[in-house]
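Our working data are protein records whose layout never changes between entries. An example says more than a description, so a record of this kind follows.
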Amino acid sequence: MTIIQIPDSPKPVGHYSQAIVSNNLVFTSGILPIRIKTSEKLSIDATIEEQLAVVFDNLIQILVEAGSSKDKVVKTTAYIVDGDHWGIVNHMYAGFFGSHRPARSIIPVKELHFGYKIELEAVAEL
């Protein structure tokens, strides 16, 4: 098992890793719209599109650090605070992954940490 931590990024405040590599799979923790290199928190007033763009950027950085890529993602789980965001998330997700179609769940929830609109976790192959 290997712990993944983006070099020169602040360590997570909670008791978790940015990702773990185990048995040739990468398991990310939940990714919020907080810039991974600086810990800059996007405003909770930022649109779902702005928040998801930061989440996808963070995902790419984590996958690259682990030795993987977005084309090797096999499963994602997205938590959204408003079911009305489903269409936007689906559209941006399709644009991000292109012809690659990982298994996916989108789960509406009452609230997310810091008041954000989206949190994403992923599993990818190496």
